[in-house]
## 1
Amino acid sequence: MKVRLNLATKALETHRRFLAGAGLTAVVGGLMFLGLGWHVYSARKVDAQRRDRTEKMRQEMAKLEVQRKELERYFSQKDIANLHDRAAFINTILDARSFNWTLMFMDLERVLPDGVRVISIEPKQVAGHVEVKLTVVTTSDEAELIFERALEESKEFTGVQVLNVHTASPSGNQSGDQKVVQLTTIYSRI
């Protein structure tokens, strides 16, 4: 039988635990270093692409600015400016002539309830659409509300705004009118 006996003054200590922990820490640190390195590389690559796109957009904007200045210089010539003004004038005349009164009266007749009469209609071309100023008289508050609601719910008349409401003058009022209502609306069917 053999007996193991250590006669040294200091017992042999093992550093296995320390070395395993240090190795594990080194591996985790190395993986984190690689992960952060990859993240920095990706971020720099994306940033470089963004800078390239930004530079291309700047160049394109510079080209467009040069073209815009050339066009402004061309259209600021006196004969071209006069031609533009004349074309705008002719377009306003054509727009005014192309307004379909019959269709507007048919649409207005469809939404006009009993107890409401139209006194005046003033259409006006504003920014590509027709703004209509209506003056109506009503026999009651209920008729006024029904008319305004019918205008708001119709597809042809939008953006109804009441401008003025006042009572009808009693002198010469034999039809029973109580209120005079002025409103504007946008007529969308042309």
## 2
Amino acid sequence: MHDESSPTPAADARHSASAPVLVAIVDDHESVRLGIRAACLDAGYEVVAASASVSELWVALAGRPCDVVVLDLSLGDGFTVTENVQHARSMGAAVLVHSIADRVALVREALAAGAAGVIPKSAATSTVMAAIAAVARGDVLNNLEWASAIDADREFGKAQLAQRERDVLHLYASGLPLSQVALKLNIKVSTAKEYLDRIRAKYVEVGRPARSKVELLRRAVEDGILALDEHGHVE
């Protein structure tokens, strides 16, 4: 399986407001795939692929763009949740976890791997469609499943950074100037600065100020956003 997990462009930077949201569905139950596909079509979204595994999705997409991957956590495909989320993100898509609500450990792993949000399979179809639209815009879902996963692992929830904020922090703290961060994420420099200001504000709120770039690097390492080698260099 391809395991690239570098930051990916936001869906809202790829298509205009008038273009349909491009959705892919990964679930090993055909009835679920068909149900989500029908709901997406009713909502005006375009379903670009539907498969029983992330590996199959990679083949089905064949490099075509995708904004959101609706991903089940328990696929039984031999890969971990982390591997599946990172593989889906490497296709340039935001990942919306669609699973049963009592699998907090798996939800926490998915969020740590970069999933943009969680929606339970018990949710109304309209709620699922709204969640797809939200993560396609780059928003983070603040729902009960997300809160439960964070509560289950306080180390992960300390700063409560959104995925795009984590992407900006990862690149900036690794040494890139803000202009290069913006270029890599396909956003304006002013937008990158806004994300950086938000990141700093969130760290202040939890009593972990990060005023300088060195302090931001320290916070990124503490929260697992960046890793250092034995010599203290960014890996």
## 3
Amino acid sequence: MLQVSMGISDYKEVWDLQKHWVRAVAERRAEEESLILVEHPETVTVGRKHKGFLPADAFEIERGGEATLHNPGQLVAYPILRLDEGERDLHAYLRKLEEVLIQTLRELGLASDRKSGATGVWVDAGRRKIASIGVAVSHWVTYHGVALNVCNDLSAFQRINPCGFEWTVMTSMERELARKVRRVEVEPIFCRVFEGVFTRQLHCRKSLDLLSSPDEPANG
């Protein structure tokens, strides 16, 4: 499975990349799954359940859920996974994504958990949300994914009601741990935990290679 670590990248470019890669995997033109790791400039996205106010610059996308916001300082992860027999349970898939986040945060010294009826990961007994999850599936290949607030500007959430909540519910690792935290510290732990939870083995590939030839994945 490819691990593709990108820097701050335009949301639409990465969205288009996901859809292209999903088609290639679904059609068996690309055998390898991928985990795309990225940050985005400030971007609002809204899922299929969104109702009410919609910022003019928001992206309406295929994932479930309501509105969320990306900005620099998040770790955004998009797993492109082929769900084979025995894995075709979207509720179980969401719970696995939550488990990756919970274990990652635990290793970095922060206790977190699920909250009934509110997909994502929460701290302080469900009072504050630290990670959002929204996924889509096409021909049993997953895309979209998770956004973990590492050290991003939380005031940007004032633009929306994130996942239907007041914006003040959002928190970050840096705020909760009361110390500097950077994506470079979190990403390798996230990837190692992801391998264990999803029983996949990741190997790195340059993002330029993925963007230029998604139909010809690397071997090994």
